[in-house]
Design the sequence.
């Protein structure tokens, strides 16, 4: 039997009622070089209790002195949840991820198990839906021992930014962003950090207006850091940036003076008006409207196109 057929056969054992999914299909790699495809019933402190198939009445328990590693075959519940997640159906995905987390709670300290991964992605659903109260509560209860991937572990640290947003602790958030400025992170994490920092800088700019430019810069980083995978944040950053342009007195003046003899194309307001025009165009061209339609007040920016330079001569 080839590995594809073997994987399919093992997955079939875990389909059906959720009660059967409590036994996790996995391959045990032993230190003597052999391996077994099993259903894991329990995992604690490196000791695995398993059976060979669904009908097996016997239980075998082996520990770290015998087991080299464990590879969990993908849970059908998790696969269904991930399909919903990738389709940005986060509320439905979260329900399935939580179901997965509950189904495999007896192995939730095993490396890279689907109980822990279900809990992790349930939190990611909360984050992507901007349900920060739920995210905060879920973080407190989450058991992270089963996480092995660096980007997953680091995401738990990045969630501190969202907690600061929840608490509206803008000074702390600004300090966090400074501390993380040179840290190596994924595109998604950089987008999150920059978005949260933009929110903080907008609030801090109420006392120090010069920080509004830095807020725009932070939102621009969000727009470029993870353009496709972090669509909700990208659309949020675009709307926040357009809101800043719309409220800018110098941009309002540039609009008032548009195509009059007093128009000054070298002014800061004119340049920011051109930035707003470019962003509004990007909004439509990149399909952001499918996530959130461009509001009428921001559609106005589409009218202010920079004149093409005369190249004749």
Sequence:
């Amino acid at each position: 039997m080839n590995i594809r057929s073997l994987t399919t056969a093992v997955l079939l054992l875990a389909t059906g009622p959720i009660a059967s999914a409590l036994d996790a299909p996995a391959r045990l790699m032993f230190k003597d070089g052999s391996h077994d495809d099993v259903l894991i019933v329990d995992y604690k402190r490196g000791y695995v209790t398993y059976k060979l198939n669904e009908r097996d009445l016997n239980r075998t328990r082996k520990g770290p002195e015998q087991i080299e590693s464990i590879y969990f075959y993908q849970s059908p519940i998790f696969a269904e949840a991930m399909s919903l997640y990738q389709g940005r159906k986060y509320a439905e995905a979260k329900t399935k991820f939580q179901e997965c987390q509950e189904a495999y709670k007896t192995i939730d300290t095993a490396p890279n198990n689907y109980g822990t991964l279900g809990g992790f992605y349930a939190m990611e659903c909360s984050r992507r839906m901007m349900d920060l109260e739920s995210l905060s509560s879920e973080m407190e209860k989450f058991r992270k021992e089963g996480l092995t991937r660096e980007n997953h572990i680091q995401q738990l640290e990045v969630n501190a930014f969202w907690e600061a947003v929840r608490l509206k602790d803008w000074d702390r958030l600004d300090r966090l962003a400074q501390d993380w400025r040179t840290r190596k992170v994924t595109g998604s994490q950089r987008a999150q950090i920059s978005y949260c920092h933009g929110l903080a800088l907008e609030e801090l700019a109420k006392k120090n207006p010069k920080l509004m430019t830095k807020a725009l810069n932070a939102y621009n980083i969000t727009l470029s850091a993870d353009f496709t995978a972090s669509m909700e944040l990208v659309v949020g950053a675009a709307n926040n940036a357009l809101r800043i342009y719309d409220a800018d007195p110098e941009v309002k003046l540039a609009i008032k003076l548009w195509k009059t003899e007093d128009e000054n194309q070298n002014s800061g307001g004119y340049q920011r008006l051109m930035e707003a025009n470019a962003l509004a165009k990007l909004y439509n061209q990149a399909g952001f409207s499918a996530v959130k339609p461009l509001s009428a007040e921001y559609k106005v920016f589409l009218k202010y196109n920079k004149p093409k330079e005369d190249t004749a001569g």
Observations:
- Residues 153-303 form one domain.
- The chain has a mean pLDDT of 91.
